[in-house]
Write a structure and sequence with these properties.
Largest sheet: 5 strands, mixed
Strand content: 15-25%
Structural class: alpha+beta
Radius of gyration: 19 Å
Helix content: 40-55%
CATH topology of the largest domain: GTP Cyclohydrolase I, domain 2
Number of domains: 2
CATH class of the largest domain: Alpha Beta
Shape: elongated
Number of helices: 8
CATH superfamily of the largest domain: GTP cyclohydrolase I, C-terminal domain/NADPH-dependent 7-cyano-7-deazaguanine reductase, N-terminal domain
Number of strands: 7
Distance between the termini: 30 Å
């Protein structure tokens, strides 16, 4: 990231809204924003598919099972339309093939892809693609449930609104596999996420 350009842009932004970027309280704001953006967007330098691939191990006979579900992976991202954060929870399911993936690796994949300017719909599709390609799974399903500050803090200010999206591949994009995965996710969330997903909201990878 070009910190100097970010800091200069923040100074211009502050001046553009009628503020004095050199007044006490704002004089270090450009550096603080650059620090925050370094954290928010560090995923631009990461290869999520390689992260997934590096976190896999061969599955011995009798180890792989039919379906693996990881619930409640917290993430934060930044909406590319308004550069405002959206915060949420990811639930992942995959049908193993010849390899298994470390459960912590799935969280790292989500983090890498969320840490860049994003759309929630695309984020789900990218997580599915990274896990599918890195793991060579028979199917992957991702449910994202997030609250967007561009909805909660501007316009109609729907402070209780969340958005649910679904992306899936392989056998988990088929009706039976999708229903089983969403049912298992919903068994532990208790917050309506799975019901909304099952109603058909979201996109398929």
């Amino acid at each position: 990231m070009d910190r100097a350009r970010v800091e200069a842009a923040v100074r211009d932004l502050l001046a553009g809204i009628g503020e004095d970027p050199d007044r006490p309280g704002l004089e270090r704001t450009p550096q603080r924003v650059a620090d925050a953006y370094t954290e928010f967007f560090h995923g631009l330098d990461l290869d999520a598919t390689q992260i997934a691939r590096d976190g896999t191990v061969p599955a011995d006979d009798g180890e792989r099972g039919d379906l693996v579900v990881v619930r409640d992976i917290r993430f934060r991202s930044v909406c590319e339309h308004h550069l405002l954060p959206f915060l949420g929870t990811a639930h992942l399911a995959y049908a193993p093939g010849e390899r298994l993936i470390g459960l912590g690796t799935l969280a790292r994949v989500v983090e890498a892809l969320a840490s860049r300017p994003q759309l929630q719909e695309r984020l789900g599709e990218q997580v599915v693609a990274a896990v599918q390609d890195g793991l060579e799974a028979r199917g992957v399903l991702v449910v994202l449930d997030a609250q967007h500050q561009c909805v909660t803090t501007r316009g109609e200010r729907q402070t209780g609104s969340t958005t649910v999206t679904v992306a899936a591949s392989g056998i988990l994009s088929e009706a039976a596999g999708r229903a089983e995965a969403i049912a298992l996710i919903g068994a532990g969330t208790g917050n309506g996420t799975a019901a909304a997903a099952d109603a058909g909201h979201g996109t398929d990878a």
